[in-house]
Amino acid sequence: MGFSFLKWFKDISIAKKLYFTVGIMALLIAVELVTLFFAINTLSSVRAFVAGEGLWSKAQKDAVYHLRKYGRTHDEKEYLKFQEFMKVPLGDRKTLMELSKENPDLEVARQGFIEGRNHANDVDGMIKLFTRFYWVSYINKAITIWKEADLQITPLIQIGRQIHLWIDADVNSHTRIDKLLNEVDEINEKLTVLEDNFSYTLGEGSRWLENLVLTLLFIVALTVEISGLILAISVSRGIQKGLDEMITASQRIAQGDLTARVQPYSKDEIGQLAVSFNHMADELSHSTEERKKVEKLLRDYAKKLEQSNSNLEQFAYVASHDLQEPLRTITNFARLLEEKQRDSLDATSRKYMNYIVKAAGRQKALIKDLLLYSRIGKQHIVEDVNINSLLAEIQEDMSLVVKETNAVISIQNLPVIQSSKIEMKLLLHNLLSNAIKYRSPEINPAVNIQAEKRANGGWLFSVSDNGIGIENEFKEKIFIIFQRLHNENEYSGTGIGLATCKKIVELNGGTIWVESKPLSGSTFYFTLPNT
Amino acid sequence: MKKLNFVLLIDDNDADNEFHEIVIQQANISSDLKSISSSVKALDYFKKCLATENDPEFPVPELVFMDINMPSMNGFELLDRLKGIPDPYHRKNKMKIYMLTGSLNPDDRDRATEQYNDLVTGYKIKPLVDTAFLEIVQTHFKD
């Protein structure tokens, strides 16, 4: 055979395997049913044959009985009865003759058996048994016996006819009749033996057939069971094996061993699953490698950042102490010099001295603001911050400026939020002091601070003033560190304040922007998310 | 050495302007000297001096010292605007513009000498001292 059944069966889909198994079972059960049906039919025919033989024998015996009685009584009725009974073996003979022909007329054969008093329902089975199983030794032998017995029927009839002739002729022929009756006895005895043999042979045959059928049924049943069992075991083992492999492999993968792979045993769904599983494992190990690479890069990057941050902190520390120290010296001694030489210094020298003091002061402010800016987020401790009381503190700190500028600050329904108090204070302080610092020269500054709850649960704060406003083109630039719009002598500042505000708002997950018209005031908005 | 007619200083820092004025005056090379303390005002000046052929109130400078870090419009932005000013008398090329800045950032130097080399002649770090100033004049203003 060119192809291996086992290999083919291994590689077809599980559904097909199941269909195949069920199909095989169904076929075998059908075979069993057919066998059973056939066996029952055949056995029933054998029974009918035996019954037919019984009728044949009984009729023959009854015929002989009535012939003898006729011989004794000369009663015509007895002869008629003899003739009547003899019709049975004669009918059967008709069938025997017909079926022995090469092309038997089955209708004639049926007629014969019915005349032999066989039941109409049995006749077809009996004919089939005769024609189909002629080759079976038991049937063959039984038919031979039947033929032999049938040979005795003609002499019996002839004898009956002779006796009838004699009695009809009223010839006193007791001795001759007796002689003929003796012949009848002989025939009868012969027939008795043949009848026994016939029954015996058919009995043997039917027992043989029974055994045969039982054996056959047993073999078929056994085949059904064994093939069913083998198929079920092989299918379930195939599935089990494939699944076991996959369970083991996935457990290994779950434990982190990404080299685990499955050996695909077949090309069915389990095999396909195994291939997909391997594919998935490849992808997984590939992406894990990638992820590890990226993680390593990130770690390295984080390390570098940490390094650079700590350098910055170091710088901030240096800036706060070491950079300020020479500055202090400059300021202090410039002041001392100014005081000491107050009377002898001319206007130019005083101006120069003033440049020195102012520049040093500005440097100090720059360093302070830069330090504040760089420290944002360092101590980000989230707590309940009451913005109302926070603004009260800020106003307290700014009271001098507020008084000097006649600023009016109105505060409306401000919430308690979750954030860092230090950061919120720096943010609002910067915005409020900007609002006052960039005031219009003609009018007193008015600042309005309010907050409203947003649909997403966060807050929208606004700080609006009536100051000088901002040109459209600078609305983004002002939030960049060191970007200033004015000369130092117009509005002093470090260019760090709004950058600080932006850093704080963004650190808290919000956004900050400004809406303004030059000369008619600005409104700074910032959002804080729901915390 | 040739004498200059007019030197213009553009810087938002008044102290720096005053210092540079003194340095230039002491060199005694330029007959006229002016300092402008904001880029917006400087732009205005350029517009005026380039628009007329010879306005004694707004003379065209022979040498300009321009700061980079200035509020609202930095030196580079000023140069961009300057490019856009109409120049009917072709006098932009006669101005020698030097960037004079406190920026130690090499990116600023590259930007000035590469990206703006059509307008910018040189790049100097503050403060401008007399030797540097004399060197500039000797290089660009021979008889």
Description:
The complex is a heterodimer of chains A (531) and B (143). Chain A is of the alpha+beta class and 531 residues long. Chain A has 14 helices and seven strands. Chain A has a five-stranded mixed beta sheet. In chain A, strands 1-3 form a two-stranded antiparallel sheet. With 143 residues, chain B is of the alpha/beta class. Helix content of chain B is 41%, strand content 21%. Chain B has a five-stranded parallel beta sheet. The longest helix of chain B is centred in the first third of the chain and has 14 residues, at 14-27. The model of chain B has no long low-confidence stretch (mean pLDDT 91).
Keywords:
heterodimer; A: 531 residues; alpha+beta; five-stranded mixed β-sheet; 14 helices; B: 143 residues; alpha/beta
SS class of chain B = alpha/beta
Tally of strands of chain B: 5
Radius of gyration of chain A: 63 Å
Gross morphology of chain B is globular
The largest interface is: A-B, 14 and 10 residues
What's the mean pLDDT score of chain B? 91
* Rg of chain B, alpha carbons: 14 Å
Largest beta sheet of chain A, briefly?
A: 5 strands, mixed
Order of helices and strands of chain A: HHHHHHHHHHEHHEEHEEHEE
- The total count of helices of chain B amounts to 5
> Quick one: biggest sheet of chain B?
5 strands, parallel
Strand proportion of chain B, as a percent range, falls in: 15-25%
- Average pLDDT of chain A, rounded to a whole number, is 87
The unreliable regions of chain B are none
Quaternary structure classification: heterodimer
Distance between the termini of chain A: 77 Å
Q: Strand order of the main beta sheet of chain A, please?
A: 2-4-5-7-6
Poorly predicted spans of chain A: none
